[in-house]
Design a protein that fits this description.
Chain lengths: 116, 115
């Protein structure tokens, strides 16, 4: 099956610093990648849709200047949390699909971010 | 806009007993429906999906789900649960209008297994 990886799996940072999370599709080319956020004991909330070579589309209420998304290649998308604050602490999950009408999303294992 | 409701926050069943997790969706057209499972500290794994065709869908790990348009439901079932099935289960609906389809998740149902 399709494999999506994320790096790092967890990160602790100081308030005010920036953190970059990578999402890679290991055995397929992903036209579209998605970034989700999951708070403890809650569901996944879609943050943005990332298309290779174009700007990401952010969901309502998500600050695009705070959560920078880059999808420079068909196998890599990055999420940078800029000037992180404790309230940004969360579980960030990416997913990818094959595109071209393929609806199934394959999820990465997630990255746990703790901002001190 | 599409939405998904999972009315049961937490369910406990005995090992070997049958299981049904409820899911109701709201969407104007024919939905793309998914069930995912998330084990503690792990990513989401796709159990099964419904796009079209046979309304009874077979998935991995012995799970199945039935799409009922009249009830706007897509309940997940398993005839006999195992302790390894303890996890969080998410129902999701996709818009399916393009390759960049969004998936909207329900709030999840936590499944506990009684020995």
């Amino acid at each position: 099956g399709a494999v999506v990886s994320q790096h790092p799996s967890w990160v602790i940072c100081k308030s005010g610093t920036s953190v970059k999370i990578e999402c890679r599709s290991l055995d397929f080319q992903a036209t579209t990648m998605f970034w989700y956020r999951q708070f403890p004991k809650q569901s996944l909330m879609l943050m943005a849709t990332s298309n290779e070579g174009s700007k990401a589309t952010y969901e309502q209420g998500v600050e695009k200047d705070k959560f920078l998304i880059n999808h420079a290649s068909l196998t890599l998308s990055t999420l940078t949390v800029t000037s992180a604050h404790p309230e940004d602490s969360s579980f960030y999950i990416c997913s990818a699909n094959f595109g071209l009408g393929e609806e199934t999303q394959y999820f990465g294992p997630g990255t746990r971010l703790l901002v001190l | 806009a599409q939405s998904v409701t999972q009315p049961d926050i937490h369910i406990t069943v005995s090992e070997g007993a049958s299981l049904e997790l409820r899911c109701n969706y709201s969407y104007g057209a024919t939905p793309y429906l998914f069930w995912y499972v998330q084990s503690p500290g792990q990513g989401l794994q796709l159990l099964l999906k419904y796009f079209s065709g046979d309304t009874l869908v077979q998935g991995i790990k012995g799970f199945e789900a039935e799409f009922k348009r009249s009830q706007s439901s897509f309940n997940l079932r398993k005839p006999s649960v195992h302790w390894r099935d303890a996890a969080e289960y998410f129902c999701a609906v996709g818009a399916g209008y393009s390759s960049a389809s969004k998936i909207i998740f329900g709030s999840g149902t936590r499944l506990s297994i009684r020995p």
